[in-house]
Amino acid sequence: MIVSLIAALASDRVIGSASGKIPWDHPRDRVHFRTRTAGNWLLVGRRTYDEMEGWFGKRIPIVLTRDPDFRPFSPAHRVARDPAAALALARGNGAKELIVCGGAEIFASLLPFSDRLLLTRLDLVAQVPDPVRFPDFSKSGDWKLAYLEQWSGDAENIAARYEVHERV
Known about the structure:
By secondary structure, the chain is of the alpha/beta class. The chain has four helices and ten strands; from the N terminus they run ββαβαββαβαββββ. The chain has one domain (2-167): Dihydrofolate Reductase, subunit A (3-Layer(aba) Sandwich). It has an eight-stranded mixed sheet with strand order 5-4-3-6-1-7-10-9, sandwiched between helices. The protein has a two-stranded antiparallel ribbon with strand order 2-8. The chain is globular and about 40 Å long.
């Protein structure tokens, strides 16, 4: 099973604020996210899960939470208490890929297990109180840039580049 992390991040690796807000709206990346994750198993933290209510559709989320009383929105959604249990759950159910969608703690805890990074790098420095950052993956082993696509900016979208990094 391939483990991929998917995120949109500012040039300073900011992915949001501690309050859970994403400081931008990027329609092209939103379409990309929905297309890339459709039909896949997703791993999300509890706060990200709450913020994504209604987004799951044809996706199978596993919520990573330490709260023993947590109940997901749907009985089809799964719960795991630690990264190893989440990986075993997806693998045991035949997932070909598990896509990790955040938040920051979840990204950091799954980075050592990841094979691929699917990153939208926005051409901006985020100005948010209490910024939350994507982990510095250059410190977690060797990676190669396997794919790069430039996205020009327009009236609705910040200029960005889409990068796929693969663990060497």
